[in-house]
TrEMBL record:
<keyword id="KW-0472">Membrane</keyword>
<feature type="transmembrane region" description="Helical">
    <location>
        <begin position="339"/>
        <end position="358"/>
    </location>
</feature>
<dbReference type="InterPro" id="IPR051084">
    <property type="entry name" value="H+-coupled_symporters"/>
</dbReference>
<dbReference type="InterPro" id="IPR005829">
    <property type="entry name" value="Sugar_transporter_CS"/>
</dbReference>
<keyword id="KW-0769">Symport</keyword>
<keyword id="KW-0812">Transmembrane</keyword>
<feature type="transmembrane region" description="Helical">
    <location>
        <begin position="286"/>
        <end position="306"/>
    </location>
</feature>
<feature type="transmembrane region" description="Helical">
    <location>
        <begin position="60"/>
        <end position="86"/>
    </location>
</feature>
<feature type="transmembrane region" description="Helical">
    <location>
        <begin position="23"/>
        <end position="48"/>
    </location>
</feature>
<dbReference type="GO" id="GO:0005886">
    <property type="term" value="C:plasma membrane"/>
</dbReference>
<feature type="transmembrane region" description="Helical">
    <location>
        <begin position="125"/>
        <end position="150"/>
    </location>
</feature>
<feature type="transmembrane region" description="Helical">
    <location>
        <begin position="249"/>
        <end position="274"/>
    </location>
</feature>
<dbReference type="Pfam" id="PF00083">
    <property type="entry name" value="Sugar_tr"/>
</dbReference>
<feature type="transmembrane region" description="Helical">
    <location>
        <begin position="379"/>
        <end position="403"/>
    </location>
</feature>
<feature type="transmembrane region" description="Helical">
    <location>
        <begin position="194"/>
        <end position="214"/>
    </location>
</feature>
<feature type="transmembrane region" description="Helical">
    <location>
        <begin position="171"/>
        <end position="188"/>
    </location>
</feature>
<protein>
    <submittedName>
        <fullName>MFS transporter, MHS family, proline/betaine transporter</fullName>
    </submittedName>
</protein>
Length: 434
């Protein structure tokens, strides 16, 4: 606390390596577990659909599974509002600790929930409740995490610091990929369906207390402490946000759109897509997920680059590349559905995700002032994730089912890229974002 208090008069001017390292670790380990939870559900969706949503029709069961996946996103805006306000009034540290508790509860429920065969309709209801809790937790995570990273960073290193939040998603990809591969590689398919998939959720539930402990050890954001000393808030930040910052909110939603659609469609959905639609080996998509995780480790380097050349040029270039190459990449994968083509495609998207999302983390946080930064980030990000990312798997499944074309998954990605390019254009024109 002494380090934070010493910087209150001049926040973001001097870097304290010890404080910075602790904050980065706390943000990364907590965010990693948050996203690991969502990844585990997506990776084992083909098992969950059989055990909790049996309909006799595999396509309908899978749609119900992904709709339940999306339901978890419906409570993200609620978490963004409630936990965003909590973060802006009480502090980033307290909000981050609370999200860890909620995440552990949600994962624990899924890990031990009996199947439809044992308790009937209660099984899918319990899964839905767990997803709602996870959604609230995830809704408050990114606002507080990005806020404390940016507010701890020196002014000329915000891109580098904020990009570490993406490393937390990288950790989720890596851990989910390794555990998913391990479970499917060393267990017979029958055991994976019987109990092996639960190991993935139990792992997250047991590691969550470590994340909670780490987050309790960090200091509060110096910029937040300075803001609290300077003013006594008469209004809830969320009210001010809606009244005065609707343009940054809309632009933030647009910026996040390709971020969330690419992440959910080209990464999490790839396991089900490769197994069910391309009929590839069970272990194939998990190896690709590990590749994605390794590539995303380079986010801080790209974030530091954006501190020098600006956020928008890098992001616009990446979004245009996604728009242009989305369909050809899925055409190649559909024509040649083998392990190396899949890994190559996921590597390609991972590179573009690094180029876009690393600067986007700082860009999103810079749209809003300290007083309601956490609320602004959380709300814009989670509205985009809820509407466009949460239903990406269901939309992709429906597009393929309606058209009968495995390449139709690319259309949604292209649409998202187009919207984000427009948002970046207005970010430069209206908000003078570099």
């Amino acid at each position: 606390m002494q380090d934070a208090q010493a910087r209150m008069k001049n926040p973001n001017e001097v870097e304290n390596p010890t404080v910075s390292r602790k904050v980065i670790i706390a943000a990364v380990i907590g965010g990693m577990l948050e996203w690991y939870d969502f990844g585990a559900y997506a990776l084992f969706a083909y098992v969950i659909s059989d055990q909790f949503f049996p309909t006799g029709n595999p396509t309908v069961s899978m749609l119900l599974t992904f709709i339940t996946f999306a339901i978890g996103f419906l409570t993200r805006p609620l978490g963004a509002v409630v936990l965003g306000i909590y973060s802006d009034r009480v502090g980033r540290k307290s909000a981050l600790s609370l999200t860890m508790i909620l995440m552990a509860v949600g994962m624990g429920i899924i890990a031990i929930c009996p199947t439809y065969e044992h308790i009937g309709i209660l099984a899918p209801i319990i899964i839905v409740i767990a997803r709602l809790i996870q959604g609230i937790s995830a809704g408050g995570e990114i606002g507080s995490a990005l806020s404390i990273l940016v507010e701890t960073a020196p002014a000329n290193k915000r891109g580098q610091f904020a990009a570490w939040q993406q490393v937390s998603q990288t950790g989720a990809f890596l851990v989910a990929g390794i555990i998913g591969w391990g479970i499917t590689a060393f267990l017979p398919r029958e055991d994976v369906a019987l109990w092996g998939w639960r190991v993935a959720f139990a792992f997250g539930m047991l590691v969550a207390p470590v994340g909670f402990y780490v987050r309790r050890q960090i200091d509060e954001s110096p910029a937040f402490l300075a803001e609290r000393e300077k003013t006594v808030k008469e209004h809830v930040p969320f009210t001010i946000l809606l009244k005065n910052s609707w343009k940054p909110l809309l632009i933030g939603i647009g910026i996040v759109m390709i971020w969330t659609v690419t992440s959910k469609t080209a990464s999490s959905f790839m396991a089900t897509y490769a197994i069910n639609n391309l009929h590839m080996a069970l272990t194939s998509p998990y190896l690709g997920m590990i590749v994605v995780g390794v590539v995303l480790l380079f986010c801080p380097i790209v974030g530091a680059w954006s501190d020098v050349v600006g956020r928008r040029p890098i992001m616009i270039g990446a979004a245009i590349a996604i728009l242009v190459f989305a369909y050809p990449s899925f055409w190649i994968l559909s024509a040649y559905p083998n392990l190396w083509v899949l890994i190559g495609q996921q590597f390609f998207y991972a590179v573009l995700m690094v180029l876009y999302t690393a600067p986007a983390s700082a860009a999103l946080s810079e749209l809003f002032p300290t007083a309601f930064r956490s609320s602004g980030i959380a709300l814009s990000y989670n509205i985009a994730v809820t509407i466009f990312g949460g239903f990406s798997a269901a939309i992709s499944t429906a597009l393929i089912g309606i058209t009968g074309d495995n390449r139709a998954i690319a259309y949604y990605i292209m649409f998202a890229a187009f919207v984000s390019i427009i948002a970046l254009f207005y970010a430069g024109k209206i908000l003078k974002m570099k």
